[in-house]
Every structure is written in C-alpha cells, then in structure tokens.
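Thought: the user asked what Proteolipid membrane potential modulator looks like in 3D. I have the sequence; next I should run the structure tool and report back without guessing.
Action: structure_tool
Action Input:
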Amino acid sequence: MTLIAIFFPFLSFLLRGRIFTGIICLILQITLIGWIPAAIWAVISLQNARADRRTDRMIRAMKKNNP
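Observation:
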C-alpha cells in the first residue's frame, strides 16, 4: 500500500474510501511539481491511519482486560 501511496497518491486515498481527499490529491498530482507533495501527503496519511487503527486496537484490548 505504501508503494501505491508513492506512485499513485490519489489511488491510495480512493482505496481507503476518502473520495473527496482523493480528488483533491489527483488535482494536485496532475502538475509535475505537485506530485511530490501529493505523494508525501498520501504516505503520511497512510501512516497516520495505521497508527490510529493500532491505537484503537490497544484501547479495545485495555477495556476488555479491565473489569
């Protein structure tokens, strides 16, 4: 998924269900200069989404173990 975020930043957003963000990223990506910021934005967004899922799993596990 990280390679998709680097080479096709807009597709990374679309695959994660972020349609409006994907369209904005595609507009940015159309310009050659905008490709690098779009790729960085997609990779950072992907990493943040993974961190959020990891945090949610830890919170659920902590709630499950506490009476």
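Thought: the tool returned a structure. Summarizing for the user.
Final Answer: Structure for Proteolipid membrane potential modulator predicted. The first helix runs from residue 2 to 7. Residues 28 and 34 are 5 Å apart (CA to CA).
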